[in-house]
Amino acid sequence: MDFSDSPQEAAYRAKVRQWLEQNRISAEEIDADPVGAARAWQARKAAAGFACITWPKDWGGPGGSQIEQIIFTEEEAIGTTPENLFMIGLGMCIPTLMFAADDETKRRFVAPALRGEQIWCQLFSEPGAGSDLAAVRTKALSAGDGTGDWLVSGQKVWTSKAHLADFGIILCRSDFSVPKHKGLTMFWIDMKSPGIEIVPITRMNGVAGFNEVFLDAVRIPDAQRLGAIGEGWKVAVTTLAHERYAVGGTSGPGWQDLLAYAKERQVGGDDFLSEGDFRASLADLYLMAEGLRHTRNRTITALARGNSPGPEMSINKVVGTRYMMDCATLALEVMGPFGLASDAGSAAAQFRNHFLTSPGSRIAGGTDEIMKNIIAERVLGLPPEVQPDRERPFDAALN
Fold first, then answer.
1. Could you confirm whether 117 is annotated as catalytic?
2. Catalytic residue among 28, 74, 243, 333
3. What is the pTM of this model?
4. Which sequence spans correspond to the domains of the chain?
5. Which fold has domain 7-84?
6. pLDDT, tens digit (0-9, with 9 covering 90-100), for 1-53
7. Which of 49, 109, 116, 193 has a CB 3.0–4.6 Å from the CB of 62, allowing a cystine?
8. CATH superfamily for domain 120-242
9. 248-363 belongs to CATH 1.20.140.10
10. Do the Cβ atoms of 136 and 126 come closer than 8 Å?
11. How does pLDDT run across 54-77, given as a tens digit for each residue?
């Protein structure tokens, strides 16, 4: 692995840093209008050629390299930025449209989404179809009135940003009489359509970023279909491939922050640094963090050489989520019985929020169990998991 920037990469990094210093949105602006600030920040990046850097110029991107995207993402993360409301749209939904939609649909949505004018959501998971996505039951049936329209009814769950979204992509079952992977059809949908009800899901930390979405005979024109009828699984696989890159990784306070906090508590009388169990746990976190860092460096090195990364994304997802949860759990032990009641804005509050939100990282972007299956089957070459219902008609499998 080569940890240093090439001369070209160093020059690009310097260019990015200069632009960020001159164009960042202040914390005050973000606090005053989080959604407006997010849209404004996305528009600034798009105008400067720093939004979706790898996208071709025909679709509004600068046609840059993967390593340039990584450099910008690294530098952007150093300072204050608005919440990224466009990760799902630009990371999953729009790439799916670019793969499966007609040219008119691409012209309508790609550039506006790039500029932050549209927020998208992904309507995939259901109460009975999460890890087994091919088991979705939301129905897409012909309207039967000669228009060619579809009527969609069902329930989606854990839909991030649905309450803010203008549009979404939705995976539906259009044929119950064939095996589950063959009876699916994908559409894009206007989230303001009649018949859509969005119910926020409040998490343990009081934030409602996920939603349940109920659809009652929502009319969708056939022109909004993505791919052929019954070929929705092929389209969904494209979306999921992009999701591996758009979701995952680590965020929040890490082992360094935990060590600094333990030193503060040591001054106050709690000498955690002398306890063997704490020191061993902190060492484990350090090793996990270093493993993640170097695994990520392997990906960066491969991209810099023009190669495709290997299984690093799946490995980082599994190990990264465990690191986040273990770090938060150890922090709660240091904080003591009143840790969950820490004042907002304090160092302890950051650990508290991390503790309350980190369990969701085991689910978002693919559960740990699914990611381990991917590693086992596609990386290690182990026999695939037995799926007795894979070739059975879906309606028969329901009985």
1. no
2. 243
3. 0.85
4. 7-84, 120-242, 248-363
5. Butyryl-Coa Dehydrogenase, subunit A; domain 1 (1.10.540)
6. 556 788 999 999 999 999 999 999 999 999 999 999 999 999 999 999 999 99
7. 49
8. Butyryl-CoA Dehydrogenase, subunit A, domain 2 (2.40.110.10)
9. yes
10. yes
11. 898 888 889 998 889 889 988 998
